[in-house]
From TrEMBL:
Post-translational modification: Under oxidizing conditions two disulfide bonds are formed involving the reactive cysteines. Under reducing conditions zinc is bound to the reactive cysteines and the protein is inactive.
GO biological process, one term: protein refolding
Residues that span the membrane, as ranges: 53-75
Domain of life: Bacteria
Protein name per the record: 33 kDa chaperonin
Keywords: Chaperone, Cytoplasm, Disulfide bond, Membrane, Redox-active center, Transmembrane, Transmembrane helix, Zinc
GO cellular component terms given for this protein: cytoplasm
Family per record: Belongs to the HSP33 family.
Cellular compartments annotated: Cytoplasm
NCBIfam families per record: PRK00114.1 (NF001033)
Its biological purpose: Redox regulated molecular chaperone. Protects both thermally unfolding and oxidatively damaged proteins from irreversible aggregation. Plays an important role in the bacterial defense system toward oxidative stress.
Pfam families, per database record: HSP33
Length: 317
């Protein structure tokens, strides 16, 4: 569905998506440079609320979730193929994980939900110090394309700001040179005010001079959160990035926070416990299993735990 990005198309997008999260994938008319721009404000706020995150924790997880969404150009659109981004640094954030499928359903968690706020001065403005919160360590991407074994690849964290680290991964592991920008802005009230990002990738056949031109544009762009708070939408960001080029829209992606967990999957974790432990839980009056990815709590009565033991004993699992 190659569609020229003009005023009518922009009006249609605005009406269709309103305040919902979504992304726009577009290419230059020469079909050689691709941009994927996303707005993830709502899904980041939902993650913040579900997990009860402090501001800096919300920023780190928000960037990770937006980052994994930008990686969906590596999987098939609209499918159950999945991509998972794992950031393991030695900073206070601890383990940070986000996962998305081809339908734009994302979920994620951060080990330290309550990182103490640390800021640094950037051009006279106070910014959250994401780099110190993440620290040094590794970035791992796991692609589950529905084949026998998922594809997994790791690179060292070179920055800790997450966007640069994703660009480094794409270059090293996928041989795709990319420019990545991510941002999460927390308001005075502690709520997520804006979140999103974009990725630019030259496709085979891109002209050197076009790449250089876009690189220069990207360097001079305001931060992505500033663009989103000044009412710019993903399609506007695409236009800003590709200023001076004709732009065609390739695809739209609706984005949402959605976890795959259920009482069924929670029961799977009970099934993995030894019988003695399950008997202890029965004595204690039941068990609570919390999903890492969305903090939903599943309650199991002693009666239900007895059934789990039965299942274990019949080996019917
Ligand atoms: Zn869940």
């Amino acid at each position: 569905m190659l569609k020229r990005l003009d005023e009518q198309v922009k009006k249609d997008f605005k009406e269709y998506f309103k305040d919902r999260d979504y992304g726009v994938i577009a290419v230059t008319e020469e079909d050689a440079i691709r941009v994927f721009a996303i707005r993830t404000t709502n899904l980041t706020e939902i993650a913040r609320l579900k997990h009860g995150l402090f501001p800096l924790s919300a920023v780190v997880l928000g960037r990770t979730m937006a980052g994994v969404i930008l990686l969906t150009t590596l999987i098939k659109h609209g499918t159950d193929q999945r991509i998972l981004l794992r950031i393991e640094g030695d900073g206070p954030a601890g383990l940070v994980v986000a996962e998305v499928n081809g339908k734009g359903e994302v979920r994620g968690f951060i080990q330290n939900k309550h990182i103490e706020t640390a800021t640094k001065d950037v051009n006279g403005k106070k910014k959250f110090d994401v780099r110190s919160a993440v620290g040094k360590g590794t970035l791992t991407v796991i692609k589950d394309l529905g084949l026998k074994t998922p594809y997994e690849s790791s690179v060292p964290l070179i920055s800790g700001e997450i966007a640069e680290d994703i660009a480094y991964y794409l270059l090293k592991s996928e041989q795709i040179p990319s420019a990545v920008s991510l941002g999460v802005l927390i308001g005075e009230d502690g709520k997520v005010k804006a979140a999103g990002g974009f990725i630019v990738q030259p496709l085979p056949g891109a002209k050197e001079e076009s790449i250089a031109k876009i690189e220069k544009t990207v360097k001079n762009l305001p931060p992505v959160t500033e663009m989103l708070t000044s009412d710019k939408r993903p399609e506007d960001i695409v236009e800003e990035v590709l200023k001076g080029f004709g732009v065609n829209v390739l695809a739209l992606k609706e984005l949402s926070f959605r976890c795959r967990c259920s009482k069924e999957t929670a029961m799977q974790s009970l099934l993995m416990l030894p019988v003695e432990e399950l008997e202890k839980l029965i004595e204690e009056g039941g068990a609570e299993i919390t999903c890492n990815f969305c903090s939903t709590v599943y309650y199991f009565t002693p009666e239900e735990i007895k059934n789990v033991i039965k299942l274990k004993e019949t080996g019917d699992n």
